[in-house]
Design a protein that fits this description.
Blueprint lengths: L8 E7 L17 E7 L1 H12 L6 E4 L6 E5 L8 E8 L3 H13 L3 H4 L1
Antiparallel strand pairs: 1-2, 1-5, 3-4, 4-5
Length: about 110
């Protein structure tokens, strides 16, 4: 196991059936699981936004039983925000929301660190 630089860590995410491109895929399908190695919270959240095809302003994080956090967003046909990704490890709810805020403001990586 390698030691990541300060503020960098491995992040494991699972995409829910609401996430684009994974509709109807089995839970064990590799397309539903993402792992980012030695990334900052901002980089991991930016990569997740890109994978989901959503702007940071369209997402928020919340607590959920059985996982570190859940990333919520709206999808067509649903009245409420739905879970798009579950954070298995590597990020907390507050780190995700701080990263989303930084991405919304368009801060550079140095300014956000």
């Amino acid at each position: 196991m390698s030691v990541a630089p300060h503020n960098r860590r491995d992040v494991a995410l699972g995409l829910t059936p609401y996430a684009p491109g994974v509709e109807g895929k089995a839970l064990r399908d590799p397309a539903r699981w993402l792992t980012y190695y030695a990334v900052s919270p901002n980089r991991a959240v930016a990569a997740l936004c890109h994978r989901l095809g959503r702007l940071p302003s369209a997402l928020t994080a919340s607590v959920a039983p059985g996982c570190a956090a859940v990333v919520l967003g709206r999808v067509e046909g649903e009245r409420e925000a739905v879970p798009l990704a579950l954070v298995a490890s590597g990020l907390t709810v507050s780190e995700i929301n701080l990263a989303l805020d930084a991405l919304r403001r368009g801060l550079t990586r140095k300014e956000a660190a």
